[in-house]
Amino acid sequence: MIVHFLLESAMHVMESINRQTWRNPWALRDYRRSSGYLNEGERAAFAIAAPQTGRGRILDIGVGGGRTAQLLRDVASDYIGIDYTPEMVALCRKNHPDLRFEHRDARDLSAFRDASFDMVVFSYNGIDSVDAAGRLAILKEVARVLVSGGAFVFSTFHRGWGGFDHRIDYRRLEWTSNPVRLGLRTLRYVEGRISGTLRQRRLRPLEERDGEHAILLHGAHDFGVMVYATTPAQVQSQLADAGFAMPGLLLDLDGKPIGAVASSEHEYFHVVAHKPGL
Questions:
Q1: C-beta atoms surrounding 83 within 10 Å
Q2: I need a labelling partner for 182 at 20 to 30 A (CA). Which of 107, 145, 147, 225 fits?
Q3: Which of 151, 157, 117 lies closest to 135, judged by CA?
Q4: Which residues in 48-87 belong to E strands, given as ranges?
Q5: How many angstroms from the chain centroid is the CA of residue 137?
Q6: Cα-Cα-Cα-Cα dihedral of 148, 72, 141, 90, to 10°?
Q7: What Rg, from alpha-carbon coordinates, does the chain have?
């Protein structure tokens, strides 16, 4: 608990912004409804990383509403999901009462012994919710708790993605023939557009572009999150520093391998990294 307090005390400004968004009832609603694979890239990454002997011990980080819990439970002999947002943990426990979920921070996995898991997952760019120092701490902690030959699957934003410069707005008005629902959705849409515009004005000055380490405003949740964005080459360097086998496998959203340079069309990419075997 002392380590958790110190982490929150040293919190980067981006985390204060992101945590507030994750606790928002609208965000919780979105995560509660989320299901299935995000894309073919995620499906391929999970399949590659799944324990080769069948069912294994799996740590699922940043579980949100439990979308990945449903995907991983069939290949897990022992499943644990964690999230640093208490509201998300409560949501997961409600959605999957038969699985284990804990309120923990991925930068401090001291509750788990060395070589505790065959597979660790941090989906939907969750690792990008903390700053550069926090990211490196996560990579080292994950490497520690993985068994030899175990796999870490995560996705990460590409800093060269054009959407960061063009400020892509993710808010869409969902059509329904029900007039009451349509009215409510229209109000929510207008509210989101207004709040998103105000957040852009307030948060854009907080962006950082220091060499490979970039913290940028993203359009999700009406521009309610700031994310760490990087490059394929920098990811490989970070994996090597954390002790993973090189090179890590990088996949685009269609599940196709990418090299050291990714197109500006790639919003993010998936990573499969293995701990060196015996």
A1: 27
A2: 225
A3: 157
A4: 56-61, 76-83
A5: 15
A6: -160
A7: 18
Amino acid in the structure at residue 251 = L
User: What tens digit of pLDDT does each residue of 89-131 get?
Assistant: 999 999 999 999 999 999 999 999 999 999 999 999 999 999 9
Query: Could you give the CA distance from residue 177 to residue 80 in angstroms, rounded to a whole number?
Result: 41
DSSP string of 25-54, one letter each residue: HHHHHHHHH--S-SSHHHHHHHHHHS-TTS
Q: Which residues contact 12 (CB under 8 A, 6 or more apart)?
A: 130, 131, 134, 215
Place of tokens 């069948």: 54
Angle between helices 13-22 and 25-33 (to 10 degrees): 70
Burial bucket for residue 257 (CB in 10 Å: 0-12, 13-18, 19+): exposed
| Residue of 143, 94, 93 whose CA lies nearest to 122 | 143
C-beta of residue 138 within 8 angstroms of C-beta of residue 125: no
- Tens digit of each residue's pLDDT (9 = 90 or more) over 25-73: 878 888 888 889 999 999 999 999 998 767 899 999 999 999 999 999 9
With beta carbons less than 8 A apart as the criterion, state whether 18 and 226 touch.
yes
Does this model's pTM top 0.85? My answer is yes
- The residue written with tokens 């990294």 in the block is 273
**Phi, psi for 4 (deg, rounded to 5):** -60, -40
Cβ burial, residue 108 (10 Å; 0-12/13-18/19+): middle
3-state secondary structure of 176: coil
